[in-house]
Predict the structure of Purine nucleoside phosphorylase.
Amino acid sequence: MTGESTRTHLYTKPTIFSDFPNVMAAESTRHGGVSPEPFASLNLGINTDDDPANVTENRRRFFAAIGADEASVASSYQVHGTSVLVVSEPGRFEGYDALITNKPAIWVGVTVADCVPILIYDRTNQAVAAIHAGWRGTVGEIVSKALAMMHNQYGTVATDCNAYVGTCIDECSFEVGPEVGEQFASAFKRIDPTTKKDCVDLKGANRQQLIDFGIPASQIAVSPFSTIEHNTDYFSYRAEKGQTGRMLAVIGILG
């Protein structure tokens, strides 16, 4: 399913969750904040070189816009790994690239600036997941591991899930060396005719992990936006050579 979404100035709201009034999911843009270049303007990344006061104000604006309290958010210092945190209380953690919870009024979130954010909602068990998947996390099947953890913890089954594969670097822009390309199935890479390098489809590879778990394709949406092609609206680590801000993708069950 193509990723239909409702985009405001500050954030995109994936419509794949719109039939469920008790869940809120959002993905920030780079607009509406106070940060100067090269972090202009809604930089939500705590671990960037931006002035912390700017990030604090940006996060206040974002959470106010989506109707959330930042004190109710659980997030992690991400390490491009495959560890999944079962969240029982809000806070700032370290070493996890996926967070799951079934606690109402707790938001789980991940920061990105080319990597893929994946949001999942289990409507029967009222559980959610926020996942950060770069190429390492994708190869390590972090989406599959997060879903397995949801099944073990909450009894999640595939047909009860809706999922969103968010804005990231698209296949047309993600050139990689052979040491990375060889780790991806042929279905998710192509050879660029000009550079002769592999171009990897992170969206497609992570969507496939959702499907392999058994989530129907009709219950999966994929963002139509690209951090490279739509760099005026989204931060891109690659396009901006590492000096840029971070978006935030969050999901939570309303209390």
Remarks:
- The radius of gyration is 17 Å.
- Helices lie at 52-66, 135-139, 142-154, 178-181, 202-213.
- Residues 3 and 223 are 4 Å apart (CA to CA).
